[in-house]
């Protein structure tokens, strides 16, 4: 059974924790930094290297985009074609190439709607000089005399004399317009002279315009372009767009094939996910990258230290012993009874956070909620709590001293000083006595790495309700702790079980006195 819709439930959300003490250290959490793939259009408008300039113009007109990638046979970007570049190529005057057409017979036939049979050899790029046969044969022959015959593309209508003159000259290609097929003897003469003939239904003016646009885009596309991997952070896209000065970047999959096209407008696209902060309300305690995405909701029971949100959000907080109490309250408010396994999970969170309802943070709401959940789950809360702590109270369970310290280590700030305090629950202090020196060395390393004024570890015995506080910090701390010092760096705190309600407030007062 799922929870009812939450306020602002627009898109999928990711909870950053369930019960803080049960999660691995923050450094091992997955990154939720927005990626390029989160904002890119995965259905880009593309061209193949054999697409013609005419087909490119049609695509630009139909799609409204300004830049299109040119793909090779494997679907990988091989060039970039912009509407600006295409316009400059065909609209700006250029006397030295006003007759020149670079195309293949296959591309030309496709553009001119010619039905001539083609062979693979017709895919090759050729350079033609275009002449329109619209004058008397004598004048026409004089105009083309200075050109290499094989380079000539003669375009004419139903003009037998021009057709014959072009074939006798041995031109590279004769295009007959208007859908008028040449006479049989003219075609036979073309075959005998090795002159290729193409028939188009278009009139001569239209055919000449289309012929110029038959050039494959591989001949006009920009071979210089910038790519970015689909899994790269969104910040890299911003940097590359600014550095390259290009209007668009081509986003590629891991195998180099095109995934999409990213532009500056991509940076304004909404990230398709956000975060719910559960059991904390500071982005510094959230998953790495949390500051880059929108926070939709907060469900917490700690002190407030949250950053401002962009929009109003649901902020559910109360001074209870466990966030699981607040989540269970959402079920009850909605008139929904959680299924048995969910009730057991929520109950375990409450028992863990409140040390089987013994912690000073425990409230009447925690107790009544635990009773409600115990009834639904069929569990005895006291017995269940003892099983939980018996299963995880051994320090050997963590594997290494570093993991003991890092398992539930949190940072706190007072004025210009930062402190860090971790906590583990145990049954008896025997294992701690063996690992004490290694744990102290770990605290010293963390203190130096994070530039902390105090780095401490609470080792809390849930049976005796006593905490041994191992601390690496300023020597003046010993004069202000006001708890028995068993040995250097180690203090005994009877009755202290809560970091939030007892240990941290005490340490912050010490900082004030120092």
Brief summary:
The protein is built from 16 helices and 21 strands.
Describe this entry's structure for a reader.
This protein is of the alpha/beta class. The chain has 3 domains: 17-21 and 276-392, Alpha-Beta Complex (inorganic pyrophosphatase (n-terminal core)); 48-71 and 78-219, Udp-n-acetylmuramoylalanyl-d-glutamate--2,6- Diaminopimelate Ligase, Chain: A, domain 1, CATH 3.40.1390.20; 397-513, DHHA2 domain (Diaminopimelate Epimerase, Chain A, domain 1), CATH 3.10.310.20. The protein is 33% helix and 21% strand. The protein has 16 helices and 21 strands. It has helices at residues 53-63, 83-91, 105-111, 137-144, 160-169, 184-193, 204-212, 234-244, 323-333, 340-353, 364-377, 381-392, 401-406, 430-449, 477-480, 499-513; strands spanning 13-15, 47-48, 67-71, 77-82, 100-103, 126-132, 152-156, 173-176, 196-199, 227-229, 248-252, 258-263, 274-278, 295-300, 314-317, 409-414, 417-426, 454-461, 466-473, 485-487, 490-494. A 6-stranded mixed sheet has the order 16-17-18-19-21-20. Strands 5-6-7-8-9 form a 5-stranded mixed sheet, sandwiched between helices. It has a 4-stranded parallel sheet with strand order 1-13-14-15. Helix 5 (160-169) packs parallel to helix 6 (184-193), helix 10 packs antiparallel against helix 11 (364-377) and helix 10 (340-353) crosses helix 12 (381-392). The longest helix has 20 residues, at 430-449. It is rod-shaped and about 120 Å long.
